[in-house]
Write the structure tokens for this entry.
Amino acid sequence: MSLPPSTELRPDSRSVRAARRARAALSRASRRAVMAAAVALGATFLVSNNAFAAPAVGQQAPDFVAVDTSGAKHKLSDFAGKFVVLEWTNPGCPFVRKHYGSGNMPATQKAATDKGVVWLAINSTERAASDYLKPAALADWMKSQSAAPTAVLMDEDGMIGQAYGARTTPHIFIIDPKGTLVYAGGIDSIASARADDIKTAVNYVNQALGEAFGNKPITAASTRPYGCSIKYKT
């Protein structure tokens, strides 16, 4: 049933204009609230609408700022001009312990950093998880394993991990000097928690970095990550 002419809303009526102004104000308030929440978090994203769209190989890697285990801030874009490796880790995971306890992960880190690569280990385990380690405890564990990353970043709110689509520990991403994601996947080719498998597996990280430094196409740019599921904050 149509409204009488006197009460029917016209496109230029005061009611319509008021409704439009209200919607615009609500939209602005929502954007301000989102930005305020992001600034308050330990890991802050510096990208726009696509912050939570996981990048594919060949796309730009999302920029971020995160605090390491000593409290220092690291901004991904500060490492422009260098290769950067992002390694998701959690010492409570047997797959992580396989690669650290055997010396494989520390050796892979050292081989990379000796070439000038920036290696950022990232822990996205939420604080409520039973195997969450506080920053000092995580730093001590890394030291006990003779680990050699450039920094160990805390991502308890999971913003970095979710933006990159990190699913497991370990899960590896390599970013080239132009900020492009050039590798995403597992550390090697044998998905097991057995240290004995390391010697027969292809180390995808060493392979990708070797090819990249040799100006060659990366043979395996996307592989299947394996390990423990990341315990994200819900």
Q: What stands out?
A: The chain has six helices and ten strands. The radius of gyration is 23 Å. The first strand starts at residue 44 and ends at 45.
